[in-house]
């Protein structure tokens, strides 16, 4: 098992109010550390269940789910772990404000399930100490920015702790006004990720069911005027794989960061169903273009794709990947 430092510094609050070490463990009863309706975050942090989890984690034996997620998603290598260290203080909260969403994307793995955990006044009244000292808060969902708990949390934490760094991932499918704008301005957003799965209206709306493309597209630029560091998340899947490079170029034109995510689940939309000849032509083209573009994010996407896809054994792909490694491996390791 790879080393994972999350359990040294983070708690994850599920929309049900259950607390875990990280979101990958949600809905696994054996990994519940406590409940925000009954215990303060500090109590959960000091609880026997969390300390036991920490100990088994640090011994490299945290159990089946961690091993599986490390294999499938390299979760232990996610970039935000650069902030973490071994001092054992609670520094980061990952909070699923609500599992509800205004869209119904075809590939979404989010489960709309037990929610309403943040209704508990106990949570809002008994965590002053943690809210005053926490260094980072990440909001996840469902759609976090339309939740009424978004402005409530921003107001509470900001008054106690204006230095706290905020992160969120959003579908940006809302009217950008009122409390959403004031909360985005008030919170000290280090980065906001916006999901754009296509730049073609028909494809975007096919993937992001119930959405209107123009609403999100316009919001990207309107939000960028409020928060300078915007990342575009693209889930690369059967309907949009040919847009990988065009979306990257678009982000570069508009001073946006790019984070392509290889869809692995649900299986129906995975690139593994593509005809091998089409897949080969596509990934060879991506590698060729990236020799000039030299994008770190595309390089890591290629690495991930070839780690899981059967085309990796093709001799021409191997040659092309070696060239990619030679050019970009030197830059990015
Ligand atoms: C679950 S969403 C929640 C935030 C927000 N509702 C949104 O769509 O951005 C978080 C991120 O997961 C991505 N995502 C959705 N389905 C996925 C899948 N099957 N595999 C990997 N990522 C996925 C979304 O595109 C988004 O960037
Ligand atoms: S907008 Fe986000 S949470 Fe909602 S269905 Fe799409 S990916 Fe899932």
Describe this structure in a few short sentences.
This protein is α/β, with parallel strands linked by helices. The protein contains 14 helices and nine strands. Helix 7 (149-160) packs parallel to helix 8.
Description:
Helix 7 runs parallel beside helix 8 and helix 12 (276-293) runs parallel beside helix 14 (315-332). A nine-stranded mixed beta sheet has the order 3-2-1-4-5-6-7-8-9. The protein has 14 helices and nine strands. It is 42% helix and 15% strand. The chain is globular and about 60 Å long. By secondary structure, the chain is of the alpha/beta class. The mean pLDDT is 92. The longest helix is centred in the last third of the chain and has 18 residues, at 276-293. The relative contact order is 0.09. The site of S-adenosylmethionine has 18 residues, from strand 5, strand 6 and strand 8.
Secondary-structure topology with pairs:
Elements: H1 6-9, E1 10-13, E2 18-20, E3 34-35, H2 41-45, H3 48-58, H4 64-73, E4 92-98, H5 121-125, H6 128-133, E5 136-141, H7 149-160, E6 165-170, H8 178-186, E7 188-195, H9 201-207, H10 213-224, E8 230-236, H11 244-253, E9 257-262, H12 276-293, H13 296-308, H14 315-332
Parallel strand pairs: 1-4, 4-5, 5-6, 6-7, 7-8, 8-9
Antiparallel strand pairs: 1-2, 2-3
Helix pairs in contact: 7-8, 12-14
This protein binds S-adenosylmethionine and iron/sulfur cluster (SF4).
